[in-house]
Amino acid sequence: MRPELETLVKLQGIDLEIRKLNGQKAECPGRLDALKEQVADKQAELEQLNERLTEINKHKVEIEDEVEMENARLSKSQQKLTSIKTDREYQALLKEIEEIKRANKSREDEILSTMEEVQSLSETIKTMEKELKAATREMEAEEKKVKGIQEELDSKISTLAKEREKIAKGVRPDLLSQYNFLKDKRAGLVISTVTAGVCNGCHMNIPPQLYNDLLRDEKIYTCPTCQRIIYVDMEKEKA
Ligand SMILES: [Zn+2]
């Protein structure tokens, strides 16, 4: 293998490592994002439950006010009973009193069921608050962990980047720019071996003349199909 190619293979090795580390870095927040979403969902649910609780309490106060008003009306009507002259008026008033009592009885029932709902809703809210606290703690712990891992990866990447810079200086500029140009297009694999006349980058046949040139190893060639820089791995070729 030509020495400039050897340097380039070394450079590719480092780039692939950097690529791998960057991939790991990108994957890091995956679980954290899920936990953040969980916390946001719980917060929204809790907010809704609290709104419902406020609504029910407000409704309860309204019915209680109604009961109070109707009770005042009731005692007025009951007082009036004593001063009534005709039987017809008396019967009508009695009927009215019964109606007020019946309506208030159903209001009292509603207040009771409202109180039960407040009770059960308050318990649900308490549970939800505990869950939210736990989810928040878990999220914060994950956040810390992710930050640690990312810092570690960053430091590895920066060490590799420095090493890369040194090696890149030893590569012929035209070769380096060709390599850089293809790097992202070929998922980091720019330099490929050729085995038995086939490019291992794209698995296509190399024209026989080019293959003969490659075997002579006098200069650097590229694959006519995938444009990767190619060379023959003599060890493999003999095998
Ligand atoms: Zn190829």
Describe this structure in words.
The protein has 239 residues and is mainly α. The chain has 2 domains: 26-165, Helix Hairpins (Orthogonal Bundle); 174-234, no CATH class. Helix content is 79%, strand content 5%. It has helices at 3-27, 29-83, 87-169, 173-183, 208-216, 234-238; strands spanning 191-195, 198-199, 221-222, 229-232. The protein has a 4-stranded mixed beta sheet. The longest helix has 83 residues, at 87-169. The protein is rod-shaped. It binds zinc ion. Zinc ion is lined by residues 199, 201-202, 204, 223, 225-226, 228.
Which descriptors apply to this entry?
single chain; 239 residues; mainly alpha; Helix Hairpins; 2 domains; 4-stranded mixed β-sheet; 6 helices; 79% helix; 5% strand; rod-shaped; binds zinc ion
A few lines on this structure:
The chain has 239 residues and is mainly α.
How are the elements arranged and paired?
Layout: H1 3-27, H2 29-83, H3 87-169, H4 173-183, E1 191-195, E2 198-199, H5 208-216, E3 221-222, E4 229-232, H6 234-238
Parallel strand pairs: 1-4
Antiparallel strand pairs: 1-2, 3-4
Helix pairs in contact: 1-3, 2-3
The site of zinc ion has 8 residues, from loops.
